[in-house]
Amino acid sequence: MKLKERKSQLQCFTVCLAISVRNLTTDQFALLQFKHRILDPQTVLANNWNASSSVCKRVGVSCGGIHERDVALNFTRMNLTGTIPPHLGNLSFLLSLDLSRNHFYGHLPK
Ligand SMILES: *[C@@H]1O[C@H](CO)[C@@H](O)[C@H](O)[C@H]1NC(C)=O
Ligand SMILES: *[C@@H]1O[C@H](CO)[C@@H](O)[C@H](O)[C@H]1NC(C)=O
Ligand SMILES: *[C@@H]1O[C@H](CO)[C@@H](O)[C@H](O)[C@H]1NC(C)=O
Ligand SMILES: *[C@@H]1O[C@H](CO)[C@@H](O)[C@H](O)[C@H]1NC(C)=O
């Protein structure tokens, strides 16, 4: 491999990694804020969403796409209650959201 080619690959690797880490952190923050604002009487999320579990492995979260950045959230039938937190809007790669069969009230934030 030519040196120049290799260098540009390395640069891409570093930049791409930085982008994906930054977005994961933003998403992680949004998800944590979401969790803190809903009432979770069965503590489904409380017991499973902690700092030591990687975002994509948490209950209700599926990841896919390049760098696992696409996020699908499925919180159906978790008995969650409260209003739907606006922080969901900060999930940059949210592809699908299923909040059905819970007890959310109020309106869907922008
Ligand atoms: C963190 O979550 C994982 C599952 O995602 C669970 O196995 C583990 O027991 C939890 N740890 C704590 C301290 O709650
Ligand atoms: C969410 O998960 C349930 C099963 O746990 C499934 O029936 C439903 O289709 C899923 N929703 C979406 C949007 O994939
Ligand atoms: C949901 O919560 C109600 C009480 O608020 C309880 O009776 C019911 O069993 C819960 N459902 C699930 C699936 O945990
Ligand atoms: C969304 O993220 C921005 C920063 O990126 C932050 O200032 C704002 O408070 C967040 N909004 C919500 C609803 O979390």
Automatic annotation (TrEMBL):
Spans traversing the lipid bilayer: none
Protein's UniProt keywords contain Repeat: yes
InterPro entries: DNA_repair-toleration, LRR_dom_sf, LRR_N_plant-typ
Annotated SUPFAM superfamilies: L domain-like (SSF52058)
Keyword check for Repeat: yes
Keyword annotations of the record: Leucine-rich repeat, Repeat, Signal
Top-rank lineage group of the source organism: Eukaryota
All copies of domain Leucine-rich repeat-containing N-terminal plant-type, residue ranges: 26-63
PANTHER family for the chain: DNA DAMAGE-REPAIR/TOLERATION PROTEIN DRT100, L DOMAIN-LIKE PROTEIN
Name recorded for this polypeptide: Leucine-rich repeat-containing N-terminal plant-type domain-containing protein
